[in-house]
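User: Sequence for Phosphotransferase below. Tokens please.
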Amino acid sequence: MPLHDDEVPIDAETVWMLLRQQLPEAAELPISAVGAGTDNSMFRVGDDLVARLPRTPGGVRSLRKERERLPQLAPALTLEVPEPVFAGAPSADYPLDWSVYRWIDGAPPSGSSVADQAAFGRDLAGFVAELHAIGLGGATRADGLSWYRGGSLRASAAMVEPSFAGTRELLGSELDVDRLEARWREGRDLPDSDAPHVWLHGDLRPGNLLVRGGRLHAVIDFGALSIGAPDAEHAAIWDYPAAARDAYFGALDLDEPTWLRARAWAIGVAVMGIPYYWGAFPEFVAECRARLEAVLAAE
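Assistant: Structure tokens for Phosphotransferase:
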């Protein structure tokens, strides 16, 4: 089911035609769908490759950004990250840029795949610390590296706050939306972070992490890569069990204002996701709901 009004149809045959035209040495390999996020569809090609195709024209800029920036960042990161191996061009069969990456084996983090949640939290904190420590090399948000999650909560209020009404209408009998909105406002009304701008992954939700051998092994999908204040980077930690969350916050030694702003971002992003994807992407709605439940349970 399409998630967006301007979505481009994509299936395995589309990928095969693109490969036949532009990367013929891969065209005879088996092709299988391996998932789709809100912005891209992914198809495994043989054993070693994965094709990544934006769902909408708006996703092309993120794809190009990955291809340009990931090779620069990867050497400074301990965890594995996607390696671009081919830059696909628009064609008559698919009108957008697309990419091929090396395949990374692993499973999303879950109660069954993660052996030690506290170790997982520390490993994720280690990745964040490494990413945030990489020099910007003169890059700024003005260089196509601006995203709302690297800005201020106040600047995003007009986008976030109408979604509280939609979430209340859909789930108000099951979630304390009033308390969630109060916690959002608590973070929104704090002074903005005065921390230096850093590189941000921007979306460290479970679908963008891979576990191997019980430990965090890779971080994928850098489509939200940006430069900005670090607060929103920590928002996704509410997607993970309390033991992982506590270890993460302890490893990074976050102060209370940063924690409160991160919690507000966690709420704001999830609240927007529920009404927008309701009926079209139930798995993502469930993920957003679970995040909000975790915020409420943590108090």
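Residues 130 and 294 are 27 Å apart (CA to CA).
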